[in-house]
Amino acid sequence: MLGMDIAEVARRAGLPASTLRFYEEKGLIASIGRRGLRRLFDSDVLPRLALIALGQRAGFSLEEIAGMFGADGRPAIDRVQLAAKADELDRTIRKLAAMRDGLRHAAVCPAPSHMECPTFRKMLRIAGAHRPQTAPAGRKQSGLKRIGR
Amino acid sequence: MLGMDIAEVARRAGLPASTLRFYEEKGLIASIGRRGLRRLFDSDVLPRLALIALGQRAGFSLEEIAGMFGADGRPAIDRVQLAAKADELDRTIRKLAAMRDGLRHAAVCPAPSHMECPTFRKMLRIAGAHRPQTAPAGRKQSGLKRIGR
DNA sequence: GCTTGACCTCAAGTGAACTTCAAGTGGCAG
DNA sequence: CTGCCACTTGAAGTTCACTTGAGGTCAAGC
């Protein structure tokens, strides 16, 4: 098929065309040429978009994701970075699980107010604990964002 | 002690004073008065801030969190909403766990490129699966954000 | 009495990730 | 050839959660 146009990529990836153009501008994807004004994309853009979506879910920023593609255009992901992200993800999962259990308890808790429930207060302690004030200027952006649209 | 000033609240909560002023403006917290120009806060602002932090971690927006406080100023959180959020959190956790396992595998995978690894490709499928294009205009903001700073 | 420093207000700026808009272009049907 | 319409562009706008900056006030210390 020698190249899909942006509309087809958009349809197949479930993303608006504007997002694809935005990604191209950011260097996350590349078109293989034009037909008239229209971008043509190789079909390998689809797994690449899947990888981008994956990276986003895993908490990488678009900029970080862009850095994961080597010069050859194929993913060249640093294995150390991957392991670090996995560890970070693991810590996040633990916190979220504690949170989920707390929420679930609060949803059925017989205490008249959530504040009187020991489980709820415990959850507050977990949530409030150890916030390292490492934000000197302009959002640190190392953590997870916008997981699970 | 009849009221801490903003600096003390900031210190105890580990938040900058600007954030506290911002939260007050948004109706998330309230000062109990002034000493001169300076805001005074009751000590109950601290658990309240913990609850706000918790809500943020659990994926609620500040606006949603503001809606969780009843007229009496005490948390009046809808139990149905809590359960729904717990379920959402649970789905997110499952995805993240799959992701973590995939990342962890990729970090040690012997395949020359990640793309040639079946586990990695499987992870891509998980990540790329079923994106409901429910984003008509201007950020939906219902998902998790900024978990685990 | 003057300086200092911590607070005050209000407006504007930041950053990520997009979306929206106005104006222009290209290919194809009629 | 003309119209149409889906596409193109670059610039500007949007949202969220804050932060920063300018200019002001006030209580305490020297």
From TrEMBL, chains A, B:
<dbReference type="InterPro" id="IPR047057">
    <property type="entry name" value="MerR_fam"/>
</dbReference>
<feature type="domain" description="HTH merR-type">
    <location>
        <begin position="1"/>
        <end position="71"/>
    </location>
</feature>
<dbReference type="InterPro" id="IPR009061">
    <property type="entry name" value="DNA-bd_dom_put_sf"/>
</dbReference>
<keyword id="KW-0238">DNA-binding</keyword>
<dbReference type="Pfam" id="PF13411">
    <property type="entry name" value="MerR_1"/>
</dbReference>
<dbReference type="InterPro" id="IPR000551">
    <property type="entry name" value="MerR-type_HTH_dom"/>
</dbReference>
<protein>
    <submittedName>
        <fullName>Helix-turn-helix domain-containing protein</fullName>
    </submittedName>
</protein>
<feature type="region of interest" description="Disordered">
    <location>
        <begin position="130"/>
        <end position="149"/>
    </location>
</feature>
